[in-house]
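LAB NOTEBOOK - FOLDING QUEUE
OPERATOR: T.R.
BATCH SIZE: 2
PURPOSE: Compare the predicted structure-token outputs for two unrelated chains run back to back under identical settings.
PRIORITY: normal
REVIEWER: second-year student, initials M.K.

ITEM 1
FIELD SEQUENCE / FIELD STRUCTURE:
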Amino acid sequence: MVVAAPLQGHLLPLVPLAAACRDAGHDVVLAGGNFPPDLLGLRTVDIGGRFSLPRSAMRAALRHPRVARAEMKGTAGHGFVGELFGRANLSLVEPLMRLAVGERPDLIVFESLSEAGAIVGGKLSIPSVLQENTLWPADDLFEAVTTSSPLRGQRIPRPALTITVIPPSVREGSPVGAVPMRPVPYSGGGEIPDWLRAPGDRPRVLVSRSTIEGPNDGNPGPAVIAAAAEVDAEFVLVRPASAARGLPPNVRTVGRVPLNELLPYAAAFVHHSGAGSILGGLAAGVPQLATPGAGDRRHNAELLARRGAGLAVEAKAITAADLTRLLTDESLRAAAQQVAAEIAAMPAPESVVAELGRLARA
């Protein structure tokens, strides 16, 4: 059983390993919600009926207003996210327990912010595995959530194994006893229009935004549109926030597309600093411009910039000069390609399946 909070950015990084387990002959079920169009044929069960991130955020903010203000700037560290997802996970425990009692899984794999998987595993004496899916170390987030005030008093056993996906040269600190695994980008499907399947006349820049709208969500779209006419490139806005009118000639829009299939052919990638977007861009060796924002997005953008593989620029401050540098600074491209080679050398999800099988049989 693979468990994720009912948010696409949390679930999608788990899909490649889940599919590898299924392809190796294991029976796999994804427990989550808000599922994208394509999950590689994996079986899914929605456990998110009572899950509301905005409601949990509001309650956590009322209890911790100072930390909530820092969270909006992306400077709260793990403090607010622990309280937020400690509360949010409470709504997942009951439906996940019902599912687990019916399925009787031999192993539960859960992501960094779905500790309901560990709680249910503990109650049913099922071993659990923590799969990292952010640029914050998984063990740090596990500690933040399980020690939060909403989960105080819960018996939450530590995972039998932690899988780490952050490339070593990007990571801050070294994980102890974790199993490394290549972060395989997966975007959840979508139809690619014919014009996007062929190279354009100019360098192509993909511009994406978060699947979650909210304050300080780091959407780079408006600033890119304003600056695009001054840049010698083709800009493709993926899932723009609103119907775009009066676009410059070198800006086009598209609906949901599998970014993981398009990134290897892009000249650059501009996005909201989600962990999945950054890891996807790094895996493709593409220079990125990431916009700092709420939650972990400032941390993510600054981590990328410190590695030299991209730029961290506030969404409203993006200029034509920033976009031109993104396309012409060879040091950014060289660093991105170095990390891509590092990721390619990490163990594939298929290589981790045997270890999971041993835990399931223990």
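ITEM 2
FIELD SEQUENCE / FIELD STRUCTURE:
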Amino acid sequence: MPSAPTRYRGRFAPSPTGDLHLGSLLTATASYLEARVRHGEWLVRIENIDPPREVPGSAGRMLDTLERFGFQWHGTPLYQSTRTAAYEEAASRLLDAGHAYACGCSRSDIARDAFRHGEEGPIYPGTCRHGLPPGKSARALRVRVPENGLLCFEDGLQGHVCQDLARDIGDFVIRRADGPFAYQLAVVVDDAAQGITHVVRGADLLLSTPRQIWLYRLLGFTPPSFLHVPLIKDADGRKLSKQLKSIPVDPANPVASLVHALELLRQSPPASLMRATLAEVWEWAEQNWSLERLKGVAEIRLD
């Protein structure tokens, strides 16, 4: 009986222009090469979970940009905007099992009543955990986190990672007050639907991983393996702002952008690759890809 395929995903939130940005290029390149060297399938997911905020045509332009850079994916891209029914079903399962509950708190309520702050701001104090208090009506859906104990996992680059969900995060939102489902739920449901076995992404999402593992467990899914590529920082070691990370790479010169990405990923491409064809750059990258060169690298610096 043949074994199940090894599947990696490339995640892309389309920008208004459909450009490929530096951070997206780095993580996509790492994910793509990991899949290629391990003879796995690389699947593309368009994370347009909030369609009203999406600029029409931006997702299609993003796919065109990926093709210009030589990325080749398995099957048809999955659009989160088409997956609402699947998210509804998962949320209903969590509600029916008592793992989720309706919350009537606003952001100002939480900021006022929070007992402590975590890395993502005020930690939800559990106001609606045992039912909506008088005067409150349902706004969002939250998932109950375990009250005691650490949730730990082994990351392919970051090593042993642990988080106390109750202390550091609190019960978290899976459906927002304005309607759309949260990324935490959508990514878990879609990973299970696509049979994703390996996730390679930026370390800015490392903090979200324990929440997602908790959801995998509650929904009865097997979590994939995780590998988080170091964060991009400026020459002074400061985390890049969203504005700087959103500077697009040049689709008119994909060779230069891809070689630069390989340099930032510590792959030491030869200078001659700047004169190579795009196919030759990918061939070199696949033959020379070494994840070991990123181990122990805390950050990726822009010169």
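REVIEWER COMMENT (ITEM 2): The chain has ten helices and 14 strands.
FOLLOW-UP: none requested
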